[in-house]
Hints:
The chain has helices at residues 10-43, 56-60, 75-80, 86-102, 106-127, 136-147, 154-174. By secondary structure, the protein is an all-alpha fold. The chain has a domain at 15-45 and 74-172.
Amino acid sequence: xxxxxxxxxxxxxxxxxxxxxxxxxxxxxxxxxxxxxxxxxxxxxxxxxxxxxxxxxxxxxxxxxxxxxxxxxxxxxxxxxxxxxxxxxxxxxxxxxxxxxxxxxxxxxxxxxxxxxxxxxxxxxxxxxxxxxxxxxxxxxxxxxxxxxxxxxxxxxxxxxxxxxxxxxxxxxxxxxxxxxxxxxx
Length: 186
């Protein structure tokens, strides 16, 4: 790189550096807002009232009897509970997927995408079962990217990290083993 910044006057350099700092500040504010949106969604009681437009039955267009044992509990509690059934996790995954599709807000989309992947991660980490068509290698990559997000709560981050590791193990188990070339020695 040529001496492109050295010809700037001090006030010009200050403006340039200030612009970079403002960009970083905007990213920080955006991450904090996203963290709050996700936290509020996770703390919210699982919406099972069929008359509410954003409830699971209304969004999915079907009764959600698999979630009835979790009535009164928060979405975050249900995602982290090892006794939550695979059927319930699948419903939560489909619910989040539909909310992503319906929303225009980037914050809500990011938060519900995190819930979508957290549902899949819970199935993998807590039940050793995949509830998606994504491959294990692909999931490990998605999960690893998600845990790097500063706005992800620690308890969800831990669950997703466990799922990422389980997926890496599963992916390596599924790769064809290289055949040794036999040259007379074992």
